[in-house]
Amino acid sequence: MSLNDDLTAVQRCLDDLVRSVSRLEQRVGAGGLEIRRVRTDADHLRESLALLRETAPEERSRPEMVPVPDVPYNSALWSDVDDEGLGARDRHAP
User: Fold this and answer.
1) Residue 78, CB half-sphere, CA atoms under 13 Å: how many?
2) What phi, psi does 86 have (nearest 5°)?
3) How far out from the chain centre does Cα 11 lie?
4) How far apart are CA 26 and CA 20, in angstroms?
5) Is the overall model pTM greater than 0.70, yes or no?
6) Per-residue pLDDT of the chain in tens (94 residues, 90 and over written 9)
7) Measured distance CA(34)–CA(45) in Å, rounded
8) Cβ atoms within 10 A of the Cβ of 84, count?
9) Where is this region: Disordered (predicted)?
């Protein structure tokens, strides 16, 4: 997984957490100290994730892979080239 995928997964989990805390608030009431602390902690996590997303390094894209066939190259491609270190085919080496 890429960094962006991981950050998105964490964002989804935090969104689920916030929805769950909201449902919990409806059941137990929003006035208690405990539920306010849970709400505040969830909000802090969301803010921290937003900061992390802003400062996260950009991912480098991978270079495109170019398939190389296993079949031999057409010999006509090499008809007018010099053999490395040996010179041209029609001349003798010094």
Assistant:
1) 9
2) -115, -15
3) 15
4) 10
5) no
6) 788 889 999 999 999 999 999 999 998 887 788 999 999 999 999 999 999 988 888 766 778 888 888 988 888 887 777 666 665 666 665 5
7) 17
8) 6
9) 55-94
d(CA 20, CA 60): 36
- Rounded to 5 degrees, what angle do the CA atoms 43, 13, 27 make? 65
93 phi, psi to nearest 5 deg: -70, 150
Structure tokens at 86: 């040996």
What amino acid occupies position 7? L
Q: Is 30 exposed, middle or buried (0-12, 13-18, 19+ CB in 10 A)?
A: exposed
